[in-house]
Design a protein that fits this description.
By secondary structure, this protein is mostly helical. The chain is built from five helices and no strands. Helix content is 70%, strand content 0%.
Length: 87
């Protein structure tokens, strides 16, 4: 456990007691919400939770974190491109 991401471990413990985990706690404690790359950091956080849930065989948390990562990516990460940039 000493090699595990602290915030992912926090999410695992909160999930075991409540059935979910809260990104707001992570945002408040890490200051990530003030970052220019908030969306990327949020997706990374959820992926860290996925990896921890897989490591400790917590399928409900793994599924919840995968859905949370996808939702965060859909909300915060966009790819802008045009035909000119392709060629």
């Amino acid at each position: 456990m000493h090699d595990d991401d602290v915030w992912a471990l926090d999410a695992l413990l909160v999930f075991l007691y409540t059935g979910n985990y809260f990104k707001n706690r992570w945002c408040a404690e890490t200051g990530a919400a003030d970052s220019d790359i908030y969306g990327l950091l949020l997706v990374k956080h959820h992926i860290e939770v996925v990896l921890l849930a897989d490591k400790y065989d917590v399928p409900g948390l793994k599924e919840y974190a995968i859905l949370s990562a996808k939702q965060a990516a859909d909300e915060h990460l966009t790819v802008e491109w045009s035909r000119q940039s392709l060629g």
